[in-house]
Amino acid sequence: MTRFLLKRIGQAVVVIFFVTVIVFLLLHSVPGGPAHGILGPKASPQAIAEFNREHGFDKSLVQQYWAYLSELFHGDLGESYTLNQSVASLIGQRIPKTLVLTGLSTLVALVVAIPLGVWQARRRKGLADYAVTTVVFVGYATPVFFLALVLVIVFTQKTQLLPPQAPQTQSIGGLFADSRALILPVLAGAIATIAAFSRYMRSAVLDNLAEDYVRTARAKGASERRVVWLHIMRNSLTPIVAMLGYYLPVLFSGALVIESVFNYPGMGLLFWNAAQTSDYPILLGAVLVIALATVIGSLLADIVQALIDPRVRGTIK
Amino acid sequence: MSLSAPVAAEPPPVRVAGSYRRMASLFFANRLAVTGLVILALLLVFCFLGPLLHHTDQTHTNLSAANLSLGTGGHLLGTDDVGHDVLGRLMVGGQTSLEIGVAAGLLATLIGTVWGAISGYAGGWVDALMMRVVDAGIAIPALFLLLVTATILRPTVPVQILIIGCVSWLVPARLVRAEALSLRSRDYVQAMKAMGGSHRRAVFRHIIPNAIGTVVVNATFQVADAILLIAYVSFLGLGVPPPKTDWGGMLSKGISYTYDGYWWLIFPAGVAIVLVVCAFNAIGDGLRDSFEVRLEGR
Fold first, then answer.
1. Is it the case that residue B280 has pLDDT exceeding 80?
2. Where in this chain does the record put each ABC transmembrane type-1 domain (chain B) (predicted)?
C-alpha cells in the first residue's frame, strides 16, 4: 500500500507540474500580455516596457515560470483586470457556491442513478431495461443548456411553479434560504449525471452478477435481495467511486453552463463573465484551480478505491 | 521487398474481406446502429442538399420579417430575431456543426492515435511521461480551455477545428496506448524488429493498423463529443462569428426570447443537436459490438 501511495502521489505531482506549465504558456500567449490588460489598450510602448521591466516580464521564459510558481506557492493568482480584486479572493468567494451546486446535483444524481442501474441490470434485455436505456441514451446526448432551457420553459414559463433565476445572494446561507430557486439549477445538473452514472452502475452490476462470490452467496442460501443489495451493490460501487474523481472536469463544465443559464453566482458565472471581458488572470486562475481539484480528486478516488479493493493496488501503473 | 510483398500480402485480403463482410452484416443486424446511420444520412441530406431546394437569404438581415411564427410568409419554421428563415438557418448552421464536428473529431483521433501508439510502444519512462501529459490535459476541462482560446483567437471555422482537435485527443491516446502496450510484445512485432525494422515502421505499420478497431470506434464518439463541444462554446457566445452560425449559436440567440414564447428559436436547433449526437453514438456502439465479435472470431 505504501508503495502504491508513493507512486500514485508522485504521478499526481508530475501531472500538476505539467498543468502549471500549460497554464503558464497560455497566460503567455495572451495578446499584448499582462501590461496590455492592466494599463489598457492605449498604453504607450514606453509605459509597457517600464511595466514589463518592473514586473520581470522581460526576463527569460524559464525565469518567469519560476517566478510564477513561487507566486502560486504563496496562493497568489494575480489581479483581475476588470474587478479590482485579487483572483484568489474572487475564486475563494465563488467556489463554495459552485461546490454547493455540483455537490447537491451529484448527490441527487447518485441517489437516483445507483438504484436505477441495479434495477436495470436485473432486468437486462427486458422491456423496462430497453426503455430506460433509450431515455438514458437521449439524455446523454442532450446538451446541458438545452435541458436547462426546456426545464425553464416547462417550470417557469408554462406553469410558473418555480423561479427562473438562481438565488441572487452573497452568502451560502442565502442559497439555502431561497431553496425553491435552487431546484432548477440542481435538477439540470443532476439529469446529465444520472444518464452517465446509471450506465456505469448497470455495467458494473452486470459484471459482478457473473462473479463466483455471487454464486457462493446464492448457494449458501442468501436471499436474492441480500445478494443484490448487499454483496453486488458494495462491489459495484468501487468503479463508481473511481469515476467520480475523473468526472470532476465534466461536473465543472456543467456548472459553467448551468450558472450562465440561471445566473447562479458561482465560479462558472465568474469565468463566463471574465471570458466576455477577456479578463485573463481570472480565466487562467480558474482553469488552474479546477485542474488542481481534478488531479487531487482523482488521486483521492484512486486511494479510496485501493482501500476498498486490494486488487486495484497492483493494477494502477 | 517488391518481390516478397505481394506474396506475403496474398492470404490476408481473403480473410480480411471475409471478416469485414461478417462485421458489416453484424453491424447492419444491429437495429440501433442502422437507425443511427439512417438519421445521420437524413441530416446530411437536409443540411447539404436542403439549401438547393429551399432557397433562403442567410446573410442579410430583414428586421421587418423578424420573429415570424410558423408558416407565416412562407417561412415553414418561422424566422429569428433578425429575419432569417429558421428552416434555412437550421441547414446552414448544421453544415457548420457537422463540418467542425467531423473534422475536429478526426483530427483529435489522429493526434491521439499517434501519441498513444508511440507512448505504448516506447514503454518505460517515455511512456510514463507522455501519459502524465495526457493526465494533465484531462484535468483541464476542454470547455474552459476552449473559452480561453476563443478570447485569444478569432474563432473562425478552421481555428475551431484546430483547437477542438488539439484539446480532445486525450481519450483516444489512452485507449490506443493500452492496445499498443499489449501489441508491442506480440511475435510479429518482435520478428519485424529482429529483421532490422525501424521503430517508425513498428508504430505505423503494425501497432496502429492492429489497433484500428479501437481507433474507428473511438473516432465516431469523438465526432459526437466535438459536435457537443462546439455547441457549448457557441451557446456561451464564443462560437463562429456571424453571419455564419451553428446549432448551438442558434439556440443561444433563442434564449432571449424564452418568455415571448418563440419556441421555434430553441427546439429545432436543440433537437437537431440531440439527433446528430445520438446518431454518432449509436453508430459507435454498433461498430464496437461488431469489432468485438470479429476479434473474438479470430
1. yes
2. 94-284
> B139: which chain A residues are within 8 Å (Cβ-Cβ)?
15, 19, 249, 290-292, 294-295, 298
ipTM entry = 0.82
Average pLDDT over residues A257-282: 86
For residue A19, how many C-alpha atoms fall within 13 Å in the half-sphere facing its CB?
27
pLDDT at B269: 86
Count of CA atoms in the C-beta half-sphere (13 A) of A237: 13
Q: What is the pLDDT of residue A314?
A: 62
pLDDT for A161-172, tens place per residue?
A: 777 777 776 777
Interface test with A, best of B35, B133, B149, B151 (most A CBs within 10 A): B151
- Which three cell numbers, joined as nine digits, stand for B41? 444520412
pLDDT attached to residue B2: 38
Chain A closest CA to B279's CA: distance in Å?
9
B135 touching A, CB under 8 A? yes
Highest mean pLDDT among A224-233, A263-272, B1-10, B204-213: A263-272
Contact B235 A278 (CB under 8 A): no
Chain B contact for A247 (CB, 8 A cutoff): no
Which of B126, B144, B274 best tests the A interface by mutation, with the highest count of A CBs <10 A? B144
Q: Say how far apart CA A12 and CA A10 lie, in whole Å.
A: 5
Distance CA(B123)–CA(B231), nearest Å, equals 37
Do the Cβ atoms of B86 and B80 come closer than 8 Å?
yes
Q: Are the CB atoms for A167 and A182 separated by under 8 Å? A: yes
Partner-chain residue, chosen from B129, B232, B266, that has the shortest CB–CB distance to A257: B232
Say which of A30, A149, A284 has its CB closest to residue B258: A149
The verdict on B103 touching A (C-beta cutoff 8 Å) is: no
Is residue B66 predicted with pLDDT exceeding 70? no
State yes or no: pLDDT of B294 exceeds 60. Answer: no
CA distance B128 to A8: 12
Of B119, B121, B147, residue with least CA distance to B134: B119
Inter-chain CB proximity B255 and A250 less than 8 Å: no
Measured between its terminal Cα atoms, the distance across chain B in Å is 28
- Contact list, A82 vs chain B (CB under 8 Å): none
The 3-class SS string of A134-168 reads HHHHHHHHCCHHHHHHHHHHHHHHHCCCCCCCCCC
- Interatomic CA distance for residues A216 and A121, integer angstroms: 20
pLDDT in tens, A252-267: 888 889 998 888 888 8
Q: What pLDDT is stored for residue B102 in this prediction?
A: 93
